Amino acid sequence: MPFTRINSKMVEAQVHPGQRMFSQRGAMLAYRGRVTFTPSITGGQGGVMSMIGRRVANEATPLMVVEGEGTVMFGHGGHHIHTADLTGETLYVESDRLLAFDGSLRQGTMFMGSQGGVMGVIRGQATGQGLFTTTLQGVGSAAFLAHGGVIELPVTPQRPVHVDPQAYVAHRGEVRNRLTAALGWREMVGRGSGEAFQLELSGQGTVYVQASEEKL
Amino acid sequence: MATFRLQGTRVLAVDLAGEAVKAKNGAMVAYDGEMTFKKMTGGGEGLRGLVTRRITGEHMAVMEVRGTGTCWFADRATEINLVRLTGETLHVEASNLLATEPALRTGTTFTGLRGASQGNGLFTTTVEGSGQAAILSDGPAIVLRVTKQTPLTVDPGAYVAHTGNLRQHLQSALGWRTLVGEGSGESFQIRFEGEGLVYVQPSERTTIGGQL
Known about the structure:
The complex is a heterodimer of chains A (about 220) and B (about 210). Chain A is mainly β and about 220 residues long. Chain A is built from 3 helices and 13 strands, in the order ββββαββββαββββαβ. Chain A has one domain (about 5-210): Double-stranded beta-helix (4-Layer Sandwich), CATH 3.60.160. Chain B has a single domain (about 5-210), classed as Mitochondrial biogenesis AIM24 (Double-stranded beta-helix), CATH 3.60.160.10. Chain B has helices at about 45-55, 115-120, 175-180, 210, and strands at about 5, 10-25, 30-40, 60-75, 80-90, 95-100, 105-110, 125-135, 140-145, 150-155, 160-170, 190-200. In chain B, strand 1 and strand 2 (about 10-25) form a beta hairpin. Strand 11 of chain A pairs antiparallel with strand 3 (about 30-40) of chain B.
């Protein structure tokens, strides 16, 4: 079920019997109807093994299960909310940016080091995003948070896009990411342009970039 | 020519075809094509610029962005306003200037006591020439016209930039109430007289005057 925008910082979702939704714990603002909120001890789908995986990967943001019948409004911290409707592809997003998503989406954890080897590991460290990221796959919708709104930039094989790691929010599709370093003597003497590390995204898909260089 | 366009209200997209634009250090959020980033130093070029910067403290950290493709800029989710200059001078706080076209010259001028009350130092940045400049404001800025008959008074913390032929002076309304800690929070104001435009943001920086 897709999310309905109420304003730039609030979304509404319909909940029907038999359909589950996951949301960040405490992100509910208001609801109508008979809706229950149960803390998800395993932090999402996939049972205990997935839970251990997420704990190890430090991608275990507390989640809750939303069930019942009615409409629920979500929002968090006054941050802007962006929604993405997935039709089979994969969305890569940091777990703490994930606000809510359909239970029909498969949740997973990906080791960023597997893309780009050593540089992937450095990427996680340099950007403060950690070595793992959350993936959502399947058919359904997801809502995620960004500071100051999001612009969507298309990535095509002819047009790779470079993103400031701090402004990167999420990406979807068949996109490879690679950290590129433009370190020169200027950075060494402390006169850098502030753009020493960039995330290069190539392939076919979309990247979401926020209008700020602040983490949530 | 470099073209500036706004994507939403908080992201500036700049299309480049080989030329260079000046932008606030670290304000790039994304680019495609080929871009190089080189740190420059504000306050004018050459040795004179260096001395000016050291003395004034108005060292706007600027980078030169050169290449072909599109580059997107944003800064802490603040709103972006495009200003087209046709020969006049734009006075703006260094921290509020996001990007300027290559044809524009930037420099530093003395503002007197007003600067200190704004929490921005005694100097301000000037942009001269013909072309577009992008300035930042915390919240959407409003543009207020000043004419000879209607002078304008603004809060130093909400002032962003001004253009045109304006004289400015700081006025204070300190009274015995301020001294006993019962001030209205509006003890200092900047008064603009002449002909021109003043950009004001719906937010106030923390200033010395704001506490009184």
